[in-house]
Each structure stands twice: as C-alpha cells, then as structure tokens.
Amino acid sequence: MADGLSLAGDSVRPISSHLDELLNRLGLLLFALTVSSVVWMFFIDSVLAWYLIRISPCQVSECLSVFAPAEWVSLRWMSALLLGLITIIPLVCWQAINFTRPGMLPQERHWLSSTILIGGIVSIGILLLTMLYLIPMVMLWAHQGSSESGVVATYDAVEILRIAFAVLSVESIVLLAMMSALMAGVVGLLDANSLTWFRIRIHGFSLALVWLSIPSHLTGIRLLSIMSCWLLVESCIFPFKTRNMSSKKIPYGEGIMDSEGSLRRIAVVSCACAGACAKDFSTITPNLMATSSATALCLNANERNDLLASAKIQRLTDIIITGCDASPLPEHMERSLDSLSIKLRGLSLLNIAAARPDGKLREVDFQLALASLVDPWPESGQKERIMEVGFDGNLTLSDELPWGLVLHPNDAFACINQQ
Questions:
Q1: Among positive and negative, which fits the CA dihedral 139, 142, 147, 148?
Q2: Residues 6 or more apart from 240 whose CB is under 8 A from it?
Q3: Which domain holds residue 348?
Q4: For 268, how many CA atoms within 13 A lie in the half-sphere containing its CB?
Q5: d(C-alpha 128, C-alpha 123), whole Å
Q6: Given 176, 211, 240, which residue is the final one in a domain?
Q7: How many CB atoms lie within 10 A of CB 392?
Q8: Would you say residue 176 has pLDDT above 80?
Q9: How many domains is the chain partitioned into structurally?
Q10: Judgement on whether residues 197 and 304 belong to the same structural domain of the protein
Q11: Half-sphere exposure of 104 (CA within 13 A, CB side)
C-alpha cells in the first residue's frame, strides 16, 4: 500500500501526533480569544457608541432606539467576541501557516503565505474604508430618501449594527476568495489544468460562507451577494483560464490510449544527470506528452518536489526520465509517485552517452529509446516502432547494452523487450 505523498525533508509522523499538535494550537487560539474578548468587554460600550455616531445618518438620540434590550446585550457580547477575533488574527495566521506548511507542496506554501500576507493587508484596508466611509454614506443616502418622502425614520440600533457586521463578514469572505484565486494564478497553481479543482474549492467555501453570514430574513440580499461573489471570483480566475505554466502540459482530459484502451497521461523529463546527459529532448517529444527538464533529480530535492507538484496537478499516469533508469531516485520519491498511481520509468540514455566516444547524445538515441518502450504501446509492435524511427546507420538490437559497445556517429542502439 502506498504511504502517501511525501516531499524531500518530510518526516514520518503518526496521525495522533498531528491531532495533538492541532489541539494544542487550537487551545492556544481559544485562550487568546477568550482573553482578548474579556479585555474588549471593558471598552465595548464606548466602541459601539462611537461607531453608532459614525454610522448613524442623524442624531443618535433622535432616531436610534433599542427595541429589544436582550438582543442589545447579546450584540455587545458578539461585538466583543468579534473584536477579540480581529485582535488575534496575526496569531491565527501564524498558527495556520506553521501547522499546514509541512503538508503542502512548495507552490502551495508560497500561495498560502502570499494570500495571508497580501490578502490580509489589502482586505484590512478595504474593510476599514467600507466600515468607516461607505456604510455611513449608504445610510445617509437612504435616510435622505425617506425624509424626502415625508416618512419620519426611527432605526433599530441592533439591526443597524447587525447589517454592518454582515457586510463586514461578506466582504471579508469575498476579498479572501478573490485573493486566493489571484495568488494561486501568480504562483502557478491555477491554470487550465487545475481550473476545475480550484473552482470547486474556492466557490464551494466562499458561497457557503456568504450564505451563512447573511441573516435569513434578507433573502434577496443573500442571492445578490452570492451572485456578486461568484462573478468577482470568476473575474480573478479568468486571466489564468488558458495558461500553461510548464514547458508543455497535456490538455485536460487528453493523453495517449494504451493497448487496453486506458487514457495515459505521460510526461518525459529530460534529466541532465548533473551534466552527464545534458541534452533537452522537449522539442522532439511526441504530441500529447508533457515535457519537463531537470539538472539532477536524484541530487536536487527542489526539482523532485516541483516534479511531484506538477504531476499531481496534471494528473499524470506515467513519468519517463531520459537520463537514468530511475533507480537512483530516493525511495520517498517512488513512494510518493506510487501514492499518486504514477508509473516511474527511465530510458537509460546515460548508458548510451557513455558508449559514444564524444559523450554526446543524438536525437535518434531518444527516439529509439522511446520507441522501444512496451508500455503504453504493445510489445508485439516494438520492432516495427523501432524501424519507423528511420535510422540509416548501423543499428544494434539487444535486450541490454552489450559490454564494451562503442557507438560511432553512424551507430545506434535500441533495447528490445524493455519494460
């Protein structure tokens, strides 16, 4: 059974240790929220009085009333809790980053950090502008409209604050969803291949939270807010809908059909093997195969992590390494690919380079090695595929590279019955 996706540097820990860490972090956040909320309770009356003066379209003593004292008391507690939560937001972000980073791919870590930092700064600025200026302007405009119609308006202070808090909640959710989509596109997580995956998650969470944040009696506002949230997030996703982030990615839903009729999404990685096999075959790789390059997968942990991230996003089924036979790769890499149901193989072109006096590979070496593969292509047509390469020189066919074989410029080698 596959052990799961693991990156270079990951440590094996039981699930119970992750749960213990999560409970410890949640306990710390709960303690901090309790302390900050209790502190805010000593100042909440002054804060609410100041904000009511700010938001009220008229004199507070003339047109604001509290029709349900019990609701006012509950609103005071809710306001203190909200201010306490806002106070510990930096601590929440810090704990979230530290807890989730070990289980994320490098691009995902960059995305999370960027979203929290940039999204937090932008969101705070827009929310302050909304709470201090936009909502008071809307309230004043609505009050003036009622005055012109001859209606004497008396407002419920609790309802006004509830609406303001609902606006704050919805705007926060929409801003964070938009920043998540933008940062995912900027760091390379969002493109044509991962579009559906991101849409489901971002829209699913954001729309559900918007629905829950608005009071149930404001049905029309709920629908309008959900439609606005969907359109705004889609506008952030749109620039990345047709973009591919790597040298060549397989279009979503396409690939190569094997002999059993299964769809195979294959990527060819031109690994230079630390300079021993320094030739990039991306330009001659067959269509509907993804391409990538690396300097030394067995030595460079970052390149292995990037390859895992790309393989996961593209939903690859096969990875073919040009340089070696894939055996020098660390065991955790093989386990991770196995957990993603990806078959790892190598063309062993490093041996061909060693058999050439000048140590330089030719394009025909790659073409013959690829043609000799019996998976996903049938073994019965192996020799026909090799002959279709069209090499006019001396071609050696064997189940392994003969000892002492020297390949001159007009010589080539192809391995038959290669698995």
A1: positive
A2: 184, 185, 190, 191, 192, 195
A3: 256-415
A4: 25
A5: 8
A6: 240
A7: 8
A8: yes
A9: 2
A10: no
A11: 15
> Strand ranges (DSSP E) for 232-360?
256-257, 263-264, 266-271, 290-294, 318-321, 343-346
Cis peptide before 376 (omega within 30 of 0): yes
158/197 same-domain check: yes
- Vertex 323, ends 317 and 326: CA angle to 5°? 50
Q: Is 55 inside any structural domain?
A: yes
For residue 221, give every residue at least 6 positions away whose Cβ sits within 8 Å of its Cβ, in sequence order, or none.
214
Q: 388 versus 220: which is more confidently predicted?
A: 388
pLDDT digits (tens, 9 = 90+) for 190-215: 777 677 778 888 888 888 988 888 87
Query: Could you read off the pLDDT of 260-293 as tens digits, one per residue?
Result: 778 888 888 888 887 778 788 888 888 888 888 8
Residue 139 CB contacts under 8 Å (≥ 6 apart), including other chains: 55, 56, 57, 160
Determine the pLDDT at residue 3: 54
More confident of the two residues 82 and 243: 82
Q: Which of 191, 205, 189, 5 is nearest to 110 (CA)?
A: 189
DSSP readout, 124-169?
A: HHHHHHIIIIIHHHHHHHHHHHHHHTT----EEHHHHHHHHHHHHH
Distance between the two ends of the chain, CA-based, in angstroms?
A: 22
Q: How far apart are CA 281 and CA 322, in angstroms?
A: 9
| pTM, full prediction | 0.65
- What is the Cβ-side half-sphere exposure of residue 67, based on CA atoms within 13 angstroms? 9
- Does residue 118 contact residue 179 with C-beta atoms inside 8 Å? yes
